[in-house]
């Protein structure tokens, strides 16, 4: 049985088609990214999986149950993008209530709240109201509510949106740690972040499923990415030089300073040749990456 | 059922542990103090004197006044009249935000991961009834103290009457609370829910009035709105008042059905 089964799901908002016949099957395991440009349907799909929305047509099954089935309570957790706790109650009071709704007794619920708040590094906020917390702290509290109990599937909608780099790092390590016990599905625009955390990608565009991509494949041989420290000459001159190297099939330039080199995978030692070429020309580079970034693969790739 | 009970119980916390809840409680207490001190205490004095009661009976609807004068404890009789008109207003204000602001804030989404839509809807509805029940109990207790201060021998009959009044007031408040549960399921703030309730109320009363003039045989139209049985209730006494219980119960079932339908179908 798959973790998630979407069978030809469509969601309309009036005349707007937000999701168009998405069929998808995802298995439990490593974190999965849900990506796409604005309006691609990510939040709609996310909300359908959580049961916040009803599909106009099609069928959604999570662990064999329909999305809003009460048997998923406690097994499915989520951090909805713009959801907030009630500003009138303390964080501890509300999380305890949520834990009790998951079936815990009052004492167990209180201990569980302490555990998850400690996990997100915020044990002191238990007596505070949400209004008294910064944006980053609120996000971590919301992640804490998603970690309560032992959910098997955790959906995170833009978990790092609006967070500063230290908080992003905290969030990333929390997800990595929790990913040992649950499958994460993370919706985000931050491809660099997703690339670090996730192993596969569900790519949506204009409400349609463009594909499910294995991130590991993007790192496989066949591509090099050169990130220039500066652009001393025009991009087409650099492209021409790189294309002249043996076994290079194609070179594409992505603004402002990235070149993706497609080459014959059977050829070994091209990385040294590229570095030598750049050094000889006096073109400073910052990085030479084996493979392509997720962004290049999804939006600029030849596949 | 467990989630319904937990959510309902949480509404009592909302009354006692939040600033807004405590302000509502304070407002109720202040209004109630004024009513108790000047309306109930004063009027009970009048009613306990037959001649003055007779003057009042002559001035107002004699059936209602005569019925109220037949109550053994005048304070409870006055409590009954005042609460019949005051509590529905308070109920509409108090119960307006059953799900509205939680919907706008996204809190319903967090709840929905642990409770069904029905659990949230009926939990909040029952929670509001619990709050109202608690307020009536407090108000009744203060009235009983007033009775004790005047004549302690009337405590037992006052307790018996209190039971009748409590049951009837809860029945009267049922459809008002259900109405607010319905409009709250469509709204994104308490104010918006109250506005919806006012619009629905006015449209229904105009429509029902017009239809009942066109079709006088449709007597059921007189019972469309919550509280439509109140004037008839005032002419009854004792457990006879329950003869009208079916009206608010049917209204409540219909309003809850409408609210549940919206709650089930709405996107969050």
UniProtKB/TrEMBL annotation, chain A:
SUPFAM superfamilies found in the cross-reference section: P-loop containing nucleoside triphosphate hydrolases
Pfam families, sorted: ABC_tran (PF00005)
GO molecular function, one term: ATP binding
Domain of life: Bacteria
InterPro entries: AAA+_ATPase (IPR003593), ABC_transporter-like_ATP-bd (IPR003439), ABC_transporter-like_CS (IPR017871), P-loop_NTPase (IPR027417)
Domain ABC transporter per the UniProt entry, residue ranges: 4-231
Family: Belongs to the ABC transporter superfamily.
Protein name, entry field: ABC transporter ATP-binding protein
Organism: Leucothrix arctica
Upper lineage: Bacteria, Pseudomonadati, Pseudomonadota, Gammaproteobacteria, Thiotrichales
TrEMBL record, chain B:
Bilayer-crossing regions: 21-40, 77-100, 121-149, 161-183, 195-213, 233-258
UniProt keywords, alphabetically: Membrane, Transmembrane, Transmembrane helix
Pfam families attached to this UniProt entry: ABC2_membrane_2
The organism's place on the tree of life at top rank: Bacteria
A GO-annotated cellular component: plasma membrane
This protein's name: ABC transporter
One GO MF term: ABC-type transporter activity
């Amino acid at each position: 049985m798959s973790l998630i089964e979407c069978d030809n799901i469509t969601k309309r908002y009036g005349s707007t088609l937000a999701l168009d016949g998405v069929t998808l099957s995802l298995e439990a395991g490593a974190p999965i990214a849900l990506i796409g440009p604005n309006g691609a349907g990510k939040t709609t799909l996310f909300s359908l999986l959580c049961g916040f929305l009803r599909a106009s047509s099609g069928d959604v099954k999570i662990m064999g149950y329909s999305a809003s089935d009460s048997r998923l309570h406690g097994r499915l957790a989520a951090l909805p993008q713009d959801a907030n706790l009630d500003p009138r109650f303390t964080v501890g009071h509300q999380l305890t209530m949520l834990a009790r709704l998951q079936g815990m007794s009052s004492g167990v619920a209180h201990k569980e709240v302490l555990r998850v708040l400690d996990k997100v590094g915020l044990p002191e906020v238990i007596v505070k109201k949400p209004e008294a917390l910064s944006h980053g702290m609120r996000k971590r509290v919301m992640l804490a509510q998603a970690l309560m109990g032992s959910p098997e599937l955790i959906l995170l909608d833009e978990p790092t949106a609006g967070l500063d780099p230290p908080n992003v790092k905290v969030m990333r390590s929390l997800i990595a740690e929790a990913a040992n016990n649950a499958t994460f599905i993370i919706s985000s625009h931050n491809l660099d972040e997703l690339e670090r955390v996730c192993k596969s990608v569900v790519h949506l565009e204009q409400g349609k499923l463009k594909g499910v991509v294995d991130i590991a494949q993007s790192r496989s041989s066949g591509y090099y990415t050169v990130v220039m420290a500066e652009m001393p000459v025009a991009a087409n001159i650099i492209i021409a030089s790189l294309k002249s190297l043996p076994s290079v099939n194609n070179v594409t330039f992505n603004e402002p300073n990235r070149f993706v080199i497609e080459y014959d995978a059977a050829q070994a030692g091209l990385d040294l040749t590229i570095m030598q070429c750049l050094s000889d020309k006096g073109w400073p580079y910052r990085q030479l990456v084996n493979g392509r970034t997720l962004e290049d693969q999804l939006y600029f790739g030849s596949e | 059922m467990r989630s319904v009970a937990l959510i309902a119980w949480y509404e009592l916390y909302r009354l006692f542990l939040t600033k807004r809840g405590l302000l509502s409680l304070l407002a109720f207490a202040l209004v109630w103090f004024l009513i108790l001190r000047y309306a109930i205490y004063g009027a009970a004095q009048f009613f306990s004197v037959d001649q003055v009661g007779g003057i009042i009976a002559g001035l107002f609807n004699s059936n209602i006044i005569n019925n109220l004068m037949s109550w053994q404890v005048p304070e409870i009789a006055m409590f009954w009249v005042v609460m019949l008109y005051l509590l529905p207003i308070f109920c509409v204000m108090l119960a307006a935000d059953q799900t509205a602001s939680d919907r706008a804030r996204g809190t319903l989404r967090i709840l929905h991961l642990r409770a069904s839509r029905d659990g949230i809807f009926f939990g909040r509805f029952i929670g509001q009834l619990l709050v109202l029940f608690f307020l009536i109990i407090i108000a009744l207790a203060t009235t009983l103290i007033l009775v004790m201060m005047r004549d302690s021998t009337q405590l037992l009959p006052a307790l018996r009457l209190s039971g009748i009044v409590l049951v009837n007031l809860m029945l009267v408040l049922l459809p008002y609370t259900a109405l607010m549960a319905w409009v709250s399921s469509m709204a994104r703030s308490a104010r918006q829910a109250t506005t919806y309730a006012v619009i629905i109320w006015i449209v229904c009363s105009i429509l029902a009035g017009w239809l009942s003039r066109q079709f006088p045989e449709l007597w059921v139209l007189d019972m469309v709105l919550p509280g439509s049985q109140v004037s008839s209730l005032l002419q009854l006494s004792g457990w006879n008042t329950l003869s009208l219980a079916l009206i608010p119960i049917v209204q409540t079932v219909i309003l809850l059905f409408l609210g549940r339908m919206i709650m089930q179908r709405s996107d969050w």
